[in-house]
Amino acid sequence: MCTLAGDEPAAKVPRLASIGNQPYAADLIFDPRGSPIVIRAFLIPACALTISTVSLASAAEPNEGMAKTVSLKFEAMPIVTPEAPQQAVPQDDADPATLVARFGEQGSWRWNVQGGFGAEFEETDKRFGLGGLSFSYFIVDDFSIDFEFNGLYFDQPAAENAGGFNFNVLARWHVLARDDWSLFVDMVGGVMETSDAVPAGGSSFNFVAQAGVGISFDISDDVRLLTGVRWHHISNGRTFDTNPSQDSLYIYAGLSFPF
Q: Which residue segment(s) compose the domain that 217 sits in?
């Protein structure tokens, strides 16, 4: 509570206002830190002012010699500071290290695991299987150069079975590319070294050529399944005395991941 000083001679009190012929004074005593401070005005910032009681003498019997008593009650108003609205970080300001290039974007790299099975067109009991790792680099949008490293095993009923290693360079064009799937064509050239002659009567060193079509589609965030079919050719290119060849139907599948 803040109380106005009253009951003093009117001559000692500044006249601030009057109602009829009656003068009024307001000596406001406000002590926030323990030391009296006299504020001779009704300017009170940050407070809600409520006049609780006003005692006035009858207007018919004015008393010029006395100031009137006014009781004032001050209620502190809570100060509310509005919270600043949170601003979304623009996509352009995101950390580039956290961004993953879309599949097929120019300049992006991916790594892949693949496996496949092939059988010769004429003698289908001549089969082979392979599995390996490859890396894709998109030199332009939707066109990649891949580097494949494969292990192979050949089942040859009329000769010794053979195991070996194969390195390929592959060109793949996603002719029809959508956000979550694509249709592509590819061509492959490579070399192969095996533990025995492949095919029988040939050599352990051979060249490999392939061509085919395939499809890719998303199976989870940034992971693609690739599958396709190719013509698969093996021969030594007449680098040895004999040059038997083997042409097979090759079916494969692989998973592709971003770096």
A: 107-258
